[in-house]
Amino acid sequence: MRVRFYFQILTAVLAVTCVATAPTVLAATVQANFDGGNGTDVPDAFVGMAGDGWTGAWGIVGRNNPIVDATITDASPLNGGGNYLSFAITGTDPSTNRTSVGRSYTAGIDIGQSHSIQFQYRIDEDLSSPYSTFTHYEADKYHIFDGPTLRDGTNSGLSWMIYGHPDDTFGITGRPDNWLVYNGNNDGTGTAFDSGIKLQQGVVYNMQVDVNAVTKRWHVTIDDGTTVFDSRSVFSDGLGWRTAAATVGGTIHFNGDGNWTSEEVFDTRQFSVDGLSVTGSGLNPGGPPVGGMTSVAAHFTHGNAGGTHVDAYQGNAGDGWRTHWLEVQERADLNHRVIMPDDPEFNPLKSEGGAYLSFSATTNASGNSRNAVARDYKTTADPGINWAREHTIQFSV
Fold first, then answer.
1. Tens digit of pLDDT for each residue in 73-106?
2. pLDDT by residue (tens digit) across 311-353?
3. Which of 118, 169, 282, 349 places its Cα 20 to 30 Å from the Cα of 369?
4. Could you report the per-residue pLDDT of 202-248, keeping only the tens digit for each?
């Protein structure tokens, strides 16, 4: 059997093909209002599923085998009505216990661009009575932060962080302190700044985090219904990221830490979340995408120049191509060469003419014969097309 075909790959381009000098950014919003309740068949549920800009479902990760009680309910709404996530974690080990619930939004938001995160948050734990277990200054904490992957607690790889713990005034612990915001040095270190907004049971906090992906800084507002803290009033240029990474992680975490001692029962951190939204640039802005290029093309203009040119057969890597042309051969003899316009057998594939690759495979043994030519354009770092995002491939055959 002889199979013969001709083709010319014209271009592998992103869906937005215009190289704009002043691109129009496409706004995008990824939301979690928990309208789908408890389930895995729609994105806006718990734990939900991938979709609507969410990379995957909600995830839970804990240290030292905590007991987790997570559910969607409408028993005590945060924003006047509707479902919300109720989350409680109880330690079971005589040491520090920590647990996070989080979700990645990188499927819908370009984390390389500036974006904003809004949510309502409520602490449901008894913070101040004589029976409270929120007493250990070093270990009892509530955290809200961003990280590259879901993790049980904080580390130096986080970009922004909001947190609170018991007071330690004059060595007297056991009283809830204020919300703190982290002013990082972009090297894994930083210092805490007191917002002046008190940690209180039952208070709904409206929070907004504005991430500047260019300056690697962030702003935050915390509104408890009476007092508003705006970090811009103190840090006009923004708070610094903690991490030295080039981008934020794109996974939001809601976290609780607890410590158990012989004087107290196992700690329980308990909180509720609703109205989570991330607003920023979509993954198809009008200008060059991540990867730096809007078009990678093969026109075979250098014919059969081997490895001395990119746009040849087999060519070499470059101009957005990760590799030269590759061949897959099974039980067949391959015949391939670029047909140039001045060749006698030239038969243009396009009305405007141009060189093209002629490829044929003739079987030489019994059994299935599979043969192909291929070229790799996938990249998320080198100049080229970011294959992880929507793009269009055009060719003539």
1. 999 999 777 999 999 998 777 677 789 999 999 9
2. 777 888 777 777 887 777 778 776 777 777 777 877 776 555 6
3. 349
4. 999 999 999 999 899 999 999 999 999 999 999 999 999 999 998 88
CB 98 within 8 A of CB 153: yes
Q: What angle do CA 46, 104, 76 make, to 5 degrees?
A: 35
Average pLDDT over residues 166-183: 72
Q: Which secondary-structure segment (H or E) carries 308? A: none
Tell me the domains of the chain and their CATH numbers: 1-20+288-296+312-334+368-397 (no CATH), 27-281 (2.60.120)
SS3 of residue 73 by DSSP: strand
Q: How many CA atoms lie within 13 A of 5 on its CB side?
A: 9
Tokens 């962030």, residue?
Answer: 218
pTM of the predicted protein model: 0.66
CA distance 396 to 7: 5
SS3 category, 277: strand
- Name the 3-class secondary structure at 131: coil
